[in-house]
Structure formats: C-alpha cells, structure tokens
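Work Package 4 report. The design task specified in the project plan requires that, given a folded chain encoded as structure tokens, an amino acid be chosen for each position. We show below one input record used in the internal validation round.
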C-alpha cells in the first residue's frame, strides 16, 4: 500500500480556483483503478493551506495516478499558484 500526505500552500488570490481544481483532482483520482482512499481538505485555520490524504493499492497504481490526465491538468492549471508543497510518505502502524 502506498500512503501519501501532501500539503499545498497557495497564493491568497488563487484560493477559490485552487479549491475547484483540487476538487476535480479528488473526483478523478477516486475513479482510478487502485485508489483505496483519496480526500482533499482545506485548513479551517489558514485558508491558503490544503492537504490531501491518498492511499493506493500498489506502487503501480500510484505511478499511473501521477501521470493521469487530471493530474497533468492540475499541474498545468495550478503550478504557478502553489507557494509551497510538501509530500510525506506514510507507513501504517498496524
């Protein structure tokens, strides 16, 4: 299982557009083969901070996700509005 926690900080002026794009990524990702869990969040304390928790059945499923058309569109649409990005790989404790 591949588990990722990803944090994005975006420019204040682009919050609404980023939120819409990330919602589209969530919908597209949930439809992919091998997606176990995919959820996007906006911080209640800082409107510019977004997080994604994603779980994939295999490394092959995760790699296919990384090159999926909706991911390419997200990168094209949102790459310039992301101020900071942090990706963390997670290992489940139990």
């Amino acid at each position: 299982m591949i588990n990722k926690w990803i944090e994005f900080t975006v420019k204040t002026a682009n919050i609404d557009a980023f939120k819409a794009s990330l919602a589209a990524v969530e919908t597209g990702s949930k439809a992919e083969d091998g997606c176990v869990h995919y959820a996007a969040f906006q911080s209640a304390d800082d409107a510019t901070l977004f997080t994604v928790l994603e779980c994939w059945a295999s490394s092959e499923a995760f790699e296919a996700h990384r090159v999926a058309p909706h991911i390419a569109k997200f990168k094209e649409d949102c790459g310039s509005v992301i101020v900071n990005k942090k990706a963390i790989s997670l290992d489940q404790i139990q």
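Residues 3 and 90 are 5 Å apart (CA to CA). Validation will be extended to a larger panel in the next phase.
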